[in-house]
Design goal:
By secondary structure, the protein is α+β, with helices and mostly antiparallel strands. It has one domain (2-157): 3-Layer(aba) Sandwich (Aminopeptidase), CATH 3.40.630.30. It has 5 helices and 7 strands, in the order βαααβββαβαββ. The strands form 2 sheets. It has a 4-stranded antiparallel sheet with strand order 1-2-3-4, sandwiched between helices. The protein has a 3-stranded antiparallel sheet with strand order 5-7-6. A hairpin with a 2-residue loop joins β2 (54-60) and β3 (63-72). α1 (11-24) packs across α3 (41-48). The longest helix is centred in the middle third of the chain and has 15 residues, at 94-108. The relative contact order is 0.16. The mean pLDDT is 94.
């Protein structure tokens, strides 16, 4: 099991995993499959190069089986986004390692908190994040890709 930050050369791997995630759990992400499928190769290269949001891929051997993204919002919040592990690799500890990569990068960039949004109806994800030291805060908003779904913000703070 290996986790590494993506580079521009990883764009096809990032695209493969991101599209698989959007097909597997379409209502868990702020972008739709169709929107992501329509990104140009240049847009994927830019995403993989960490030119804003940074992405990490999780590998079993040479096969990418998970991903996570994170970046700083306009409100200067370090936000975790796009967390996904393929069904066959769930329960392997890979998701926790992806979270640790984001927490480590946040602290390395001087942030003492990490935010994420999750639907409280997504019990598996909510319970996982709670086990990783996140807690719900009283912030709600519609999911951009599916506005009928309301997501709640979770927060992790150094020391949790």
């Amino acid at each position: 099991m290996d986790i590494r930050s993506t580079e521009a050369k990883d764009w096809m791997l990032l695209k493969q995993v991101r599209l698989a995630a959007l097909l597997d759990t379409p209502t868990a992400f702020g972008v739709s499959y169709q929107t992501a499928a329509n990104y140009s190769d240049e847009q994927w290269k830019e995403r993989a190069s960490s030119a804003g949001t940074e992405f990490w891929l999780a590998f079993e051997g040479d096969n990418p089986v998970g991903m996570i993204g994170a970046g700083v919002s306009s409100a200067n919040r370090y936000n975790l986004i796009g967390m996904w592990v393929e069904p066959a690799a769930r329960g392997s500890g890979m998701a926790a390692k992806l979270i640790e990569a984001v927490k480590s990068r946040a602290m390395g960039k001087g942030h003492d908190r990490v935010f994420l949004d999750v639907s409280p109806d997504n019990a598996r994800a909510s319970n996982f994040y709670l086990k990783q030291g996140f807690s719900f805060i009283d912030e709600w908003e519609p999911l951009e890709s599916h506005p009928h779904i309301t997501v709640q913000t979770m927060l992790w703070t150094i020391g949790n």
